[in-house]
Amino acid sequence: MTSSGISEGPSADASVGDPRAQFHELLPSTRRSLHHRVAVAQSEGRAPSVVASVMRDGEILWEGSATSVDGHGPDGDVQYRIGSITKTFTAVLVMRLRDEGLLDLGDPVEKHLPDTGIGEVTVGQLLAHTGGLAAETPGAWWERTPGTERPELGDVLGEQPFRHPVGRRYHYSNPGYTVLGALVEKLRGAPWEEVLRREVLEPLGLTRTSAQPEGTAAGGWAVHPWADVLLPEQVEDLGLMAPAGQLWSTTRDLLRFAAFLAQGDDRVLNAETVREMRAPAALSEDGDWEGGYGLGVQLFRRDGRSLAGHTGSLPGYLACLVFSVEEGLAAVALANCTSGPLVGALATDLVRIVADAEPRFPEPWRPMPEVEPQVLELAGPWYWGTSGYGLRVLADGIELAPLQGKGRSARFRAEEDGTWTGLGGYYAGETLRAVRRADGTVSHLDLGSFVFTREPYDAGAPVPGGVDPEGWRGLKL
Q: Which SUPFAM superfamilies match (predicted)?
């Protein structure tokens, strides 16, 4: 092995006609920072190779790698094993079944897979790792042994599958995702790998993602902790455990997958469903407010920035995919060693470097093409008791937010019956409706029984508890 070399991949060309397009290509200083960060990860992590890529708004901005073999740096088309990022792909298949009405997230596993011994656990709890199942399989470590040693689901779960009460806490479970894979196979009547290829990989154009290595793939290595020598890692077919960690992929394919997880694709899952997958379902550790888990998606909070994605590892490989919906940024980092480089920190740093050095240009403000008068009249200040709120009419709904401080704010989606449904925070799923008087004018807003009036404690609206008939007054001393 020789000293580390750095390989640079393509960047997106500026498109014509968009005044912001000239900024699609990163500045030389930003590119250098990205290259430097990857080089540090490879050198300090003592990895045979590290490859990484960054995407913004669906365009790959940068690819880079650092390698121990001069002139042989991997690019974004080289496969690495991605370990538990596979779980996110499996979760997508389960959510497709839910959207088709073939299951409900509240269904107990027993409804679809009887005689597993974990019948009380729900599908949603398995997705969020809150089912109380063991982290690993009984017997020999499944990552370093062939799947033929666990031919049945009972071999994966064992005689005592639970470690915690069902639904009480987050506890990461690889066997739980094996059960989800079995669920997919049962309801689709086909192997997990075949269903994944047909329903996710092909529609999204992920031609370099596969259950077995195909084409150019990086070999997996173990690096001695006290000497600069290597040991090749054996690659095992995980059998029933495949839905928890089998896949191989590339940085380019994983960035395309990140774009799908951020925006949705109606051929696979719509935007509302992928948003549901990204919503917090469990904290990752007791008291750890910097991380959490959705439905097959890990959640991170780094440098004041909310990120989603997943990490992965198997003997010989490390992987991380992260993305920021708000910044329109995604990053992937892959390494071919069992331990060493912190690819999770690397991927989040790549997002931070681009976001801080070259902030995203906002979309130009444009007036709405039209607005209904009965919606427009709701705009402006409202009061919940003495707390001031502002209601803003947007192109895709309305937003209600405190005039001072943070408080409870939310966006709302219009419904066909004239009401509005909260999309996040305290008011998620709650109904807002405008209550009108006999003459058609708006009396007040009712938001889950909270009354919002145009004036604080408006005597002309049904304020709960009533309003003192003497009205507002001073205090004589």
A: beta-lactamase/transpeptidase-like
214 C-beta neighbours (distance < 10 Å), count: 12
**Residue carrying the six token digits 């390698």:** 67
Q: What is the CA radius of gyration of the chain?
A: 26
CB atoms within 10 A of CB 172: 17
**Structural domains in the chain?**
80-357 (3.40.710.10), 373-452 (no CATH)
How many other CB atoms are there within 10 angstroms of residue 356's CB atom?
12
First vs last Cα of the chain: how many Å apart?
Answer: 87
Report angle CA 452, 455, 459 to the nearest 5 degrees. 90
Cα 439 from chain centroid? 47
Q: How far is residue 307's CA from residue 292's CA, in Å, rounded to a whole number?
A: 10
Task: Provide DSSP, 165-191.
Answer: -TTSS----HHHHHHHHHHHHHHHTS-
Strands 397-402 and 410-414 turn out to be antiparallel
199 neighbors 268 (Cβ within 8 angstroms):
yes
Who's near 307: CB < 8 A, 6+ residues apart?
A: 299, 300, 301, 322, 323, 324, 348, 351
pTM more than 0.85: yes
The amino acid sitting at 344 is G
CB-CB contact of 128 with 294 (8 Å): yes
For the stretch 141-156, pLDDT in tens is 999 999 999 999 999 9
pLDDT per position as a tens digit, 421-456:
999 889 999 999 999 999 999 999 999 999 999 999
Residues 333-353 have pLDDT tens digits of 999 999 988 999 999 999 999
Structure tokens at 345: 């920190």
Residue 281, token pair as written in the block = 């379902």
Q: Is 86 exposed, middle or buried (0-12, 13-18, 19+ CB in 10 A)?
A: buried
Locate 320 and state its tokens: 């991380």
Q: What is the pLDDT of residue 465?
A: 86
Burial (CB < 10 A; 0-12, 13-18, 19+), residue 324, is buried
> If you ran DSSP here, which 8-state letter would residue 429 be given?
T
Largest CA distance in the chain: 88
